[in-house]
Amino acid sequence: GRFYSDAGETTFVPDKTWTDLDALDWLALSREDGIGMMYPALWLIPRGITDRTGPWNEAVSTAPGEDAEYFTRAVLAARRVLFCPGARTYYRSGIGGASSRKHFRSQAMVIDLCQRNTLAVENSPRMRKGFAKAWQHLAHSCYPYDRGVALKALRRAEALDPVEIRPGGGPVFHVLSAVVGWKLARRLQVWSGRP
Q1: CA-CA distance, 37 to 2, in Å (whole number)?
Q2: What is the pTM (predicted TM-score) of this model?
Q3: In contact, 111 and 38? CB cutoff 8 Å
Q4: Where do the domains of the chain lie?
Q5: Of 163, 164, 192, nearest to 176 (Cα)?
Q6: What whole-number distance in Å separates Cα of residue 15 and Cα of residue 191?
Q7: What's the pLDDT score for residue 131?
């Protein structure tokens, strides 16, 4: 469950992964919206699976989402993901994200590795659509800070699946985005001092 300032405000909203699932079904459902949540507190992993997963990838050890790369490999090494309905973990959101080129390029590397590992096992429409959405989320978050990564991410998304998602924002952003397009709306949003 997510919280922003006080863990007491956490709400636990069940999603499609809150059940026992085959490993590939879990990966597909967790990335259905393109985001996927795979941080370390979610998992208790048997030693045999960690042995098959291999070591933490040092090349992405400072990347945001580095845990997604490792746990994608861990889920791929498993047959099933078992859900424990009584377990709870609290995730603090809204701390503020980095907006440096290094940050965005690291995120792109993580998505690329997760995609390569997953599609090597199941190259299906459901997996390609989830990764297309992941690339679009990256493009939305890094534009206009790093236009190169944003445009590359959009090309990667388009090559995987024609699905198109819109960036989040308030009512003014949505109206402006509909009139002038999301990229110009994002530039205006950043220019106005709203990251």
Answers
A1: 11
A2: 0.90
A3: no
A4: 2-164, 170-195
A5: 192
A6: 36
A7: 97
Residues 169 and 115: their CA atoms lie apart, in Å, by 27
- Residue the block writes with tokens 């809204």: 94
Successive 10-residue mean pLDDT values, the chain, 195 residues:
90 92 96 85 94 90 79 96 93 71 88 96 97 96 94 98 91 90 90 77
Please state, in angstroms and rounded to a whole number, the distance separating the CA atoms of residues 51 and 140: 36
- Cβ atoms within 10 A of the Cβ of 122, count? 15
d(CA 135, CA 149) in angstroms, rounded, equals 10
- Point out which residues pair with 137 in neighbouring strands: none
Both structure tokens of 103 = 């940050």
Q: Is the backbone of residue 45 left (phi > 0), alpha (psi -120 to 50) or beta?
A: beta
Rounded Cα distance, 175 and 166, in Å: 12
Which two tokens mark 72?
A: 């994608």
Residues 6+ apart with CB under 8 A from 8: none
Handedness of CA 163, 97, 69, 44 (dihedral sign): negative
The confidence score (pLDDT) of residue 119 equals 98
DSSP string, 101-152: HHHHHHHHHHHHHHHHHHHHH---HHHHHHHHHHHHHHHHHHTTTTHHHHHH
| Secondary structure of residue 73 in the 3-state scheme | helix
- Structure tokens belonging to residue 62: 């400072």
CA distance linking residue 23 with residue 47, whole number of Å: 17
